Amino acid sequence: MGFSVNTNTGAMAALQSLTSTTKALSTTSNRITTGLNVASTKDDSAAYTTAQSLRSDLGGLQSVSSSLSRAKSVTDVAVAGAEQISDVVNQMKAKAYQAADTGIDQPARDQINKDFTALRDQITTVVNASSFNGTNLLKASGGAVSALQSLQDSDGATTGWQADTLSVANQGLDLGGTVVTVAASGNISTAAAAATMVDTLTTTQTNLATSLSNLGSASRKIDAQSTFTSKLSDSIDAGIGNLVDADLAKESAKLQALQVKQQLGVQALSIANQAPQTITSLFR
Predict the structure, then answer these.
(1) Under 8 Å CB-to-CB from 155, ≥6 apart: which residues?
(2) Which whole number is the average pLDDT over 241-258?
(3) 19, 66, 80, 141 from 138: Cα distances, Å
(4) Distance (Å, whole) CA 217 – CA 205
(5) Which of 123, 164, 169, 186 is the one with CA 20 to 30 A from 223?
(6) pTM here?
(7) How far apart are CA 230 and CA 202, in angstroms?
C-alpha cells in the first residue's frame, strides 16, 4: 500500500490492539479488585445464575441456623431447670423418709417439714426462672418451641411451600401437675403424711426421668441438625467460590503481562502515528 495521509493502516491496527489490551487489563484489574471471576451475568450467565441460586440457599440456611440456635437456648435452659428440680426432688424424698420415722418426736419432724416445704417452694422458683426469650418449657403456660431444621418443603410442595420444623414440647413441671405430683401445699408434718409423700415423690421421680429424657433427646437432635446445617453451609459457600472466585495468582501474572503489552502497544501506536510525517520529506 502506498503512502497516504488519509488512511494510516498501521496506526489503526496498533490502536485496535491497544484497545483490546486495555479492555483485557480492565477485566483483570476488576477480577483482582473484587476477587471474582464472575461478578456479573455479563461475565458468564450460567455460572452467575447458578451462584445466585446457591446464595439464596445459603441465606435460607443462615435462617435455619439462627432458628436452631434459638431453640437450642430455650431447650438448654429447660434442661438445666429440670435437672435442678430432679436434685430438689431427691432431697425432698430424703426428708420425707426422715419424717416418716415414727421414732422421732414432733419438734424434730416440724423442723424436717420446714426444710421440706422450703425445697418444695424452690421447685416453683426454678420453674418460673427457666425461661428464655419468653418461652418456658417447664411452666405449663410457658408454651413450646419449634425451629426450622431444613429448607426442605415439609409436604413435598403439593400445596405450596411449608417449613420443615422440629418441635420441643412443654414439660409442665409445675407443682401439682401431671409430672411433679407434689401439691403446692404438700407437707410432711405427720408420719402418715410423710409416708404418703414418699410414694408421691417416687411417682414424680419416674415422671421427671421421662421429661429429662425428652429434653435431652431434643437437645441432641438440635445439636446434630445445627452441625449438619453448618457443614452444608460451608459446602455451598465453597461451591459458590468454585463457580465465581478468581484465581488471584493467575490474574496477578496476567496483569503484569498485560501491563507490559499495553506499554508496547502505546509505543507501537506512537511509531505508527509518525509514519505520515515521512511523506513531507518527499516534497522537499
Answers:
(1) 162
(2) 80
(3) 73, 23, 10, 9
(4) 18
(5) 123
(6) 0.76
(7) 42
Reported as a single tens digit per residue, the pLDDT across 59-96 is 889 999 999 999 999 999 999 999 999 999 999 999 99
CA distance 159 to 233: 27
- Cα(204)–Cα(202) distance, rounded to whole angstroms? 5
| 14 and 279 Cβ atoms separated by less than 8 Å | no
Distance from C-alpha of 197 to C-alpha of 272, rounded to nearest angstrom: 108
pLDDT for the residue 129: 97
Neighbouring C-beta atoms of residue 186, cutoff 10 Å = 20
Q: How many residues does the chain have?
A: 284
Q: What is the pLDDT of residue 9?
A: 73
d(CA 231, CA 159): 30
**Rounded distance, CA 120 to CA 113, Å?**
10
Hunting for cell 493467575 — which residue is that? 250
More confident of the two residues 276 and 205: 205
Domain spans of the chain, in order of start: 73-243
Joined together, the cell numbers standing for residue 258 give 498485560
Which position has the higher pLDDT, 4 or 230? 230
How many angstroms from the chain centroid is the CA of residue 161?
A: 21
| Torsion sign (Cα): 85, 70, 148, 51 | negative
Which SS3 state, helix, strand or coil, does residue 83 take?
helix
- pLDDT tens readout for residues 119-140: 999 999 999 999 999 999 999 9
Q: Using alpha carbons, select from 25, 20, 8 the residue that is nearest to residue 271.
A: 8
Least Cα distance to 98 among 110, 83, 85, 88 occurs for 110
Question: Among 106-120, 144-158, 234-248, which is the least confidently predicted range?
Answer: 144-158
Q: How far apart are CA 93 and CA 85, in angstroms?
A: 12
Which fold, 73-243? Answer: f41 fragment of flagellin, N-terminal domain (1.20.1330)
